[in-house]
């Protein structure tokens, strides 16, 4: 049996087609006593050698160099440059989400290897637009998601163009420039946790967040499929660049980490198999647990908010029972 076959077999269980090593790991950054070596390994794993963070940072550099309208054109609002941003975001979202969807679910290039849930996107389900999860997810992601993303894009680019937002360069502040790439995902996780907890308030959940949670068995388009109000909250993190000194590359990087990374985090697969040995980590089992059990893992593994507030699910049967008990108490009220 090959090493790959052994890994796949080891990750199989009654509940899951495949899962990573358990318990689920979260950042050691906030451990006490401090664990500097473990923290260094955590950040190295997330950035080296080829990871999503590195890919989005590289994409941000390419987009800034060739696919952003000149700043002097963006000093006043104009349909021309705003629609250019919208078209670019639409194309990028489609390339990433549809590319992953075709590879994993359309062409089934890696079969069931590293797939979390034994199920796939739902069909003939009246809960979705046109009774189809795929088309429902695509509609919300493109019509609402890309439009809201572009709305925030336009605000921040307008601010950069007019000098209203503080801007740095790698030459003017090299330490802060590179440190931001490591710090911004932590800030993103902080924002996502508290927004997500608010979305699970029953009144808000029923009217807003339930649109996203209809996709119990997630697929790439599920990640950015949300109610428009949720899109407004989710993408609002981009407004921090109105006050935080940064370069437009950082702004693009976080935009991609919010929008495009939603396709990978909801891919439903832990790894992308390219050839026999090349694996790129894409899916998030941490978030997959949230879509199955709902009242857990509201944040991401970049910050241990769930650990601190008792909502962490580490993938163990004990955690599953604890979450189910929490849901029973909530429903009884």
What are its keywords?
single chain; about 325 residues; mainly alpha; two-stranded antiparallel sheet; about 0% strand; globular; Fatty_acid_hydroxylase; oxidoreductase activity
General description of the model:
- The mean pLDDT is 92.
- With 333 residues, this protein is mainly alpha-helical.
- It has one domain (50-287).
- Helix 6 (174-199) runs parallel beside helix 9 (248-258).
- The chain has helices at 3-10, 36-47, 52-66, 79-106, 133-162, 174-199, 202-213, 228-234, 248-258, 260-265, 285-293, 305-308, 317-332; strands at residues 271-274, 278-281.
- The protein contains 13 helices and 2 strands, in the order ααααααααααββααα.
- Its main location: membrane.
- Keywords: Membrane, Transmembrane, Transmembrane helix.
């Amino acid at each position: 049996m090959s090493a790959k076959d052994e890994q796949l077999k080891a990750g199989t269980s009654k509940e899951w087609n495949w899962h990573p090593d358990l318990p689920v790991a979260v950042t050691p950054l906030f451990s006490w006593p401090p664990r500097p070596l473990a923290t260094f390994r955590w950040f190295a794993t997330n950035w080296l050698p080829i990871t999503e963070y590195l890919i989005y940072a590289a994409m941000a550099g390419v987009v800034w160099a060739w696919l952003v309208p000149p700043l002097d054109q963006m000093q006043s609002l104009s349909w021309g440059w705003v629609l250019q941003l919208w078209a670019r975001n639409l194309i990028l979202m489609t390339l990433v989400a549809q590319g992953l969807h075709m590879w994993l679910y359309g062409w089934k290039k890696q079969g069931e290897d590293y797939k979390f849930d034994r199920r796939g996107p739902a069909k003939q389900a009246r809960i979705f637009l046109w009774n189809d999860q795929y088309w429902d997810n695509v509609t919300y992601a493109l019509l609402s998601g890309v439009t809201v993303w572009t709305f925030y894009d336009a605000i921040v680019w307008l601010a950069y163009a007019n000098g209203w937002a503080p801007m740095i360069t790698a030459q003017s502040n090299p330490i802060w420039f590179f440190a931001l790439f490591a710090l911004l995902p932590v800030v993103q996780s902080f924002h996502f946790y508290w927004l997500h907890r608010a979305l699970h308030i029953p009144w808000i959940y029923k009217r807003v967040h339930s649109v996203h949670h209809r996709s119990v068995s997630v697929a790439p388009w599920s990640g950015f499929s949300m109610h428009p109000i949720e899109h407004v909250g989710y993408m609002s993190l981009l407004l921090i660049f109105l006050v935080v000194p940064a370069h437009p590359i950082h702004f693009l990087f976080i935009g991609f980490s919010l929008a495009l990374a939603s396709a990978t985090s909801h891919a439903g697969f832990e790894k992308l198999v390219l050839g026999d040995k090349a694996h790129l980590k894409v899916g998030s089992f941490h978030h997959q647990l949230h879509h199955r059990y709902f009242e857990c893992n509201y944040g991401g593994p970049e910050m241990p908010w769930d650990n601190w507030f008792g909502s962490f699910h580490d993938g163990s049967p004990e955690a599953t029972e604890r979450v189910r008990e929490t849901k029973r108490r909530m429903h009884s009220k």
